[in-house]
Amino acid sequence: MRFRRKLQLDLYRAESLFWENWLGIRTRTTRLPYERARDTEHKIYTPTLYRTIFRTLRGLPLKESDVFVDLGCGKGRVVCCAAYLGAAQVIGVEYIQELCDIAVGNAEQMRHRKSPIMIKHGEVQDFDFSHGTVFFMNNSFGPGAVRTVLSRIEAGLRQNPREIRIAYVTPAYGWAMKKNPWLERYGFWKHLDVAMLWRSKPGL
Protein backbone atom coordinates (compact mmCIF):
# COMPACT_ATOMS: atom_id res chain seq x y z
CA MET A 1 0.00 0.00 0.00
CA ARG A 2 2.83 2.41 0.86
CA PHE A 3 4.60 1.63 -2.43
CA ARG A 4 1.37 2.21 -4.37
CA ARG A 5 0.86 5.54 -2.62
CA LYS A 6 4.41 6.60 -3.50
CA LEU A 7 3.85 5.73 -7.14
CA GLN A 8 0.66 7.76 -7.13
CA LEU A 9 2.40 10.79 -5.61
CA ASP A 10 5.24 10.48 -8.12
CA LEU A 11 2.65 10.47 -10.93
CA TYR A 12 1.01 13.64 -9.58
CA ARG A 13 4.39 15.36 -9.34
CA ALA A 14 5.29 14.33 -12.88
CA GLU A 15 1.96 15.66 -14.20
CA SER A 16 2.45 18.90 -12.28
CA LEU A 17 5.96 19.36 -13.68
CA PHE A 18 4.73 18.67 -17.21
CA TRP A 19 1.94 21.24 -17.10
CA GLU A 20 4.02 23.83 -15.25
CA ASN A 21 6.70 23.58 -17.94
CA TRP A 22 4.18 23.46 -20.81
CA LEU A 23 2.30 26.53 -19.56
CA GLY A 24 5.42 28.30 -18.28
CA ILE A 25 3.99 28.93 -14.82
CA ARG A 26 4.92 28.15 -11.19
CA THR A 27 1.99 27.32 -8.92
CA ARG A 28 3.11 24.43 -6.75
CA THR A 29 2.91 24.63 -2.95
CA THR A 30 5.80 26.29 -1.22
CA ARG A 31 4.57 27.11 2.26
CA LEU A 32 5.12 30.74 3.09
CA PRO A 33 3.98 32.77 6.13
CA TYR A 34 1.31 34.68 4.21
CA GLU A 35 -0.33 31.42 3.11
CA ARG A 36 -1.63 30.64 6.58
CA ALA A 37 -5.37 30.73 6.99
CA ARG A 38 -6.48 34.05 8.46
CA ASP A 39 -9.61 32.64 10.09
CA THR A 40 -12.18 29.88 9.63
CA GLU A 41 -13.54 31.56 6.48
CA HIS A 42 -10.15 31.46 4.71
CA LYS A 43 -8.21 28.30 3.85
CA ILE A 44 -4.48 27.96 3.13
CA TYR A 45 -3.42 27.82 -0.49
CA THR A 46 -3.61 24.27 -1.84
CA PRO A 47 -3.50 23.93 -5.65
CA THR A 48 -5.95 21.65 -7.40
CA LEU A 49 -4.47 18.65 -9.23
CA TYR A 50 -4.08 19.37 -12.94
CA ARG A 51 -6.03 16.25 -13.91
CA THR A 52 -8.91 17.41 -11.70
CA ILE A 53 -8.84 20.90 -13.22
CA PHE A 54 -8.99 19.68 -16.80
CA ARG A 55 -11.65 17.07 -16.06
CA THR A 56 -13.75 19.76 -14.37
CA LEU A 57 -13.30 22.36 -17.11
CA ARG A 58 -14.19 19.85 -19.81
CA GLY A 59 -17.15 18.65 -17.78
CA LEU A 60 -18.64 22.13 -17.54
CA PRO A 61 -17.92 22.37 -20.55
CA LEU A 62 -15.96 25.60 -20.95
CA LYS A 63 -17.05 27.59 -24.03
CA GLU A 64 -15.34 30.33 -26.02
CA SER A 65 -18.14 32.74 -25.02
CA ASP A 66 -17.77 32.14 -21.26
CA VAL A 67 -16.51 34.58 -18.66
CA PHE A 68 -14.72 32.24 -16.27
CA VAL A 69 -14.13 33.29 -12.65
CA ASP A 70 -11.91 31.41 -10.18
CA LEU A 71 -12.94 32.40 -6.66
CA GLY A 72 -9.85 32.12 -4.49
CA CYS A 73 -7.39 31.74 -7.36
CA GLY A 74 -4.20 31.49 -5.28
CA LYS A 75 -1.19 31.50 -7.59
CA GLY A 76 -3.33 31.22 -10.71
CA ARG A 77 -3.16 27.55 -11.69
CA VAL A 78 -6.85 27.20 -12.56
CA VAL A 79 -7.11 30.53 -14.39
CA CYS A 80 -4.12 29.61 -16.53
CA CYS A 81 -5.66 26.23 -17.37
CA ALA A 82 -8.94 27.93 -18.29
CA ALA A 83 -7.09 30.43 -20.47
CA TYR A 84 -5.27 27.53 -22.13
CA LEU A 85 -8.58 25.83 -23.06
CA GLY A 86 -10.17 29.11 -24.16
CA ALA A 87 -12.93 31.47 -22.97
CA ALA A 88 -13.98 35.04 -23.72
CA GLN A 89 -12.28 36.16 -20.50
CA VAL A 90 -10.72 34.53 -17.45
CA ILE A 91 -10.74 36.23 -14.03
CA GLY A 92 -9.08 35.22 -10.79
CA VAL A 93 -10.06 36.66 -7.40
CA GLU A 94 -7.68 36.39 -4.43
CA TYR A 95 -7.59 38.22 -1.08
CA ILE A 96 -3.88 37.67 -0.26
CA GLN A 97 -1.85 40.34 -2.04
CA GLU A 98 1.31 38.22 -2.33
CA LEU A 99 -0.61 35.39 -3.98
CA CYS A 100 -2.23 37.91 -6.32
CA ASP A 101 1.19 39.16 -7.36
CA ILE A 102 2.31 35.59 -8.12
CA ALA A 103 -0.89 34.94 -10.07
CA VAL A 104 -0.36 38.11 -12.11
CA GLY A 105 3.20 37.02 -12.90
CA ASN A 106 2.02 33.57 -13.96
CA ALA A 107 -0.72 35.07 -16.14
CA GLU A 108 1.77 37.39 -17.84
CA GLN A 109 4.38 34.74 -18.53
CA MET A 110 2.16 31.74 -19.36
CA ARG A 111 2.50 30.14 -22.77
CA HIS A 112 -0.25 28.84 -25.07
CA ARG A 113 -2.81 31.30 -23.69
CA LYS A 114 -6.06 31.56 -25.69
CA SER A 115 -7.90 33.98 -23.40
CA PRO A 116 -7.17 37.29 -21.67
CA ILE A 117 -6.59 36.94 -17.92
CA MET A 118 -7.42 39.46 -15.19
CA ILE A 119 -6.41 38.98 -11.55
CA LYS A 120 -8.40 40.93 -8.97
CA HIS A 121 -7.28 41.51 -5.38
CA GLY A 122 -10.07 41.40 -2.79
CA GLU A 123 -12.55 39.28 -0.91
CA VAL A 124 -14.65 37.02 -3.11
CA GLN A 125 -17.79 38.31 -1.36
CA ASP A 126 -17.08 41.78 -2.79
CA PHE A 127 -16.71 40.66 -6.41
CA ASP A 128 -19.19 41.90 -9.05
CA PHE A 129 -21.16 38.75 -9.93
CA SER A 130 -23.34 40.34 -12.62
CA HIS A 131 -21.32 39.20 -15.67
CA GLY A 132 -19.52 35.90 -15.03
CA THR A 133 -20.97 32.74 -16.58
CA VAL A 134 -18.76 30.08 -14.96
CA PHE A 135 -17.58 30.18 -11.34
CA PHE A 136 -14.94 27.82 -9.92
CA MET A 137 -14.35 27.09 -6.22
CA ASN A 138 -11.94 24.63 -4.59
CA ASN A 139 -12.83 24.71 -0.90
CA SER A 140 -11.02 28.04 -0.63
CA PHE A 141 -13.25 29.50 2.08
CA GLY A 142 -15.64 28.63 4.89
CA PRO A 143 -19.43 28.11 5.02
CA GLY A 144 -20.27 31.76 5.70
CA ALA A 145 -18.34 32.91 2.64
CA VAL A 146 -19.86 30.14 0.50
CA ARG A 147 -23.39 31.19 1.46
CA THR A 148 -22.59 34.86 0.78
CA VAL A 149 -21.04 34.04 -2.59
CA LEU A 150 -24.10 32.02 -3.64
CA SER A 151 -26.38 34.86 -2.56
CA ARG A 152 -24.30 37.34 -4.57
CA ILE A 153 -24.31 35.07 -7.63
CA GLU A 154 -28.09 34.77 -7.42
CA ALA A 155 -28.46 38.57 -7.12
CA GLY A 156 -26.17 39.05 -10.13
CA LEU A 157 -28.19 36.49 -12.07
CA ARG A 158 -31.44 38.32 -11.40
CA GLN A 159 -29.79 41.62 -12.33
CA ASN A 160 -28.44 40.17 -15.58
CA PRO A 161 -30.37 36.97 -16.53
CA ARG A 162 -28.15 34.37 -18.21
CA GLU A 163 -27.12 30.75 -17.83
CA ILE A 164 -24.41 30.21 -15.26
CA ARG A 165 -22.48 27.13 -14.13
CA ILE A 166 -20.63 26.56 -10.88
CA ALA A 167 -17.84 24.02 -10.37
CA TYR A 168 -17.18 23.17 -6.72
CA VAL A 169 -14.14 20.94 -6.17
CA THR A 170 -13.59 19.32 -2.75
CA PRO A 171 -17.06 20.60 -1.77
CA ALA A 172 -16.78 20.70 2.01
CA TYR A 173 -19.95 22.82 2.13
CA GLY A 174 -21.88 21.24 -0.71
CA TRP A 175 -24.97 21.33 1.48
CA ALA A 176 -25.02 25.11 0.98
CA MET A 177 -25.46 24.56 -2.76
CA LYS A 178 -28.42 22.21 -2.20
CA LYS A 179 -30.26 24.89 -0.23
CA ASN A 180 -30.54 27.17 -3.28
CA PRO A 181 -33.67 26.31 -5.32
CA TRP A 182 -32.39 28.32 -8.30
CA LEU A 183 -29.55 25.79 -8.77
CA GLU A 184 -29.62 22.24 -10.12
CA ARG A 185 -26.76 19.75 -10.01
CA TYR A 186 -25.85 18.20 -13.35
CA GLY A 187 -22.47 16.65 -12.69
CA PHE A 188 -20.68 14.80 -9.90
CA TRP A 189 -17.68 12.51 -9.58
CA LYS A 190 -15.54 11.11 -6.82
CA HIS A 191 -12.12 9.86 -7.81
CA LEU A 192 -8.96 11.72 -6.89
CA ASP A 193 -11.05 14.67 -5.79
CA VAL A 194 -14.77 15.19 -5.38
CA ALA A 195 -16.28 17.64 -7.85
CA MET A 196 -19.82 18.94 -8.17
CA LEU A 197 -21.16 20.83 -11.19
CA TRP A 198 -24.20 23.06 -10.82
CA ARG A 199 -26.14 25.31 -13.21
CA SER A 200 -28.88 27.89 -12.88
CA LYS A 201 -32.39 26.74 -13.59
CA PRO A 202 -34.06 28.34 -16.63
CA GLY A 203 -36.60 31.08 -16.18
CA LEU A 204 -35.00 33.06 -13.37
Count of helical regions: 6
Number of domains as seen in the coordinates? 1
Return the CATH class. Alpha Beta
Please tell me the overall pLDDT.
89
Shape verdict = globular
End-to-end gap = 50 Å
> Which bin fits the share of residues in helices?
25-40%
Strand arrangement within the widest β-sheet reads 3-2-1-4-5-7-6
| Cα radius of gyration in angstroms | 16 Å
Poorly predicted runs are none
The CATH architecture comes to 3-Layer(aba) Sandwich
CATH superfamily: Vaccinia Virus protein VP39
Our estimate of the beta-strand percent is: 15-25%
Report on the biggest sheet. Answer: 7 strands, mixed
Following the backbone from N to C, one meets helices and strands in this order, namely HHEHEHEEHEHEE
Q: How would you characterize this protein structure?
A:
The structure is a single chain. About 35% of the residues lie in helices and about 20% in strands. The chain is an alpha/beta fold and about 200 residues long. The protein has a single domain (about 1-200), classed as Rossmann fold (3-Layer(aba) Sandwich). The protein has a 7-stranded mixed sheet with strand order 3-2-1-4-5-7-6. A hairpin with a 3-residue loop joins β6 and β7 (about 195-200). α2 (about 50-60) crosses α3. The longest helix has 22 residues, at about 1-25. The protein starts with a helix and ends with a strand.
